Amino acid sequence: MTEVSDALVTHYSENGITTLTLNQPERRNSLSMAMLEALSEELERVADDPETRVVVLAARGNVFCAGHDLKEIRDQFDSHDFQLGLFNLCSKVMQQIVHLPKPVIARVAGVATAAGCQLVASCDLAVAADTARFATPGVNIGLFCSTPMVALSRNVSRKHAMEMLLTGELVSAPRAEQMGLVNRVVDEQVLDETVYKMARTIAEKSGHTLKIGKSAFYQQLEMPLAEAYEYTSTVMAENLQANDAQEGICAFLEKRKPEWKDS
Question: Which terms does the UniProt entry file under GO BP (predicted)?
Fold first, then answer.
C-alpha cells in the first residue's frame, strides 16, 4: 500500500511490516507542525491496523530529521500559544511511538539532531548507517533541548546524555551505539537489509505477545524493583491465559512451528 509521493509522511505495508517515511527532504524532514500532525495521524492509523506487526520509521534524503522547523518557530516568536502547542504535539507524537502496540524500528541514514534525535531515542529499536550522526545542539542557539532530553535520558546514561545536551556536539554512529542510543551500526549499503531482516524476525512473532511485552517493558521501567516484579508476575500469569502463549508452548514441546491467532 503506497501513499501519494507528495505526502509529508508516506505509508507502505508488506508482510506485516509498515514503513512510515518522513518525506520532506528539502526541509531536512524537520518536525514542523504539519509534519508532526501527519506523523501523528499515521501512527494512529497503524496502531489500529491488524495487519501491521512491526513499524519501520525512515526518512528520505541525507538528513533523517533536523528537529523542529526553526523558520516556522521564528515566524511565531510572538505566539506563546503556538510554541506551547508545537512542543505539546511533539511530546504527544513521541509518546504515541512509546505506547504504540507494535514495535517501532528507526532506520537512520544521515543526521538526526534535536527533536530528530529525540525521535530516534523514542523508537523501540534503532539501526543506523555508519555515516549517521546525532546531536542535541539546542544549547548552541540558546534553546536547550529540554523535550529531546526526556527521550535521550531514558536511553543513555546520565553523563552521556548531559554531554550531548551541554556540548551540542555531533556524535558519530559508532559512538551512539556505544552509548546505547542505537542498536546496530552497519554500512549504508546494507542498512535496509539489516533493518528489514530485524523487522521480519519480529513480525514472525505473535502480535498479541508483542503488544503485551512492549507495554510491560515501559510500565516496569518507571517502577521500584519490588513493584516491577509484582507487576510483571501478574502480566506473565495473564499472558499465559492467551491462546498464543498456550499454542507457542505446545508447539515448542511438540517441535513444530506455532500458528499464531493474535489472541
Answer: fatty acid metabolic process
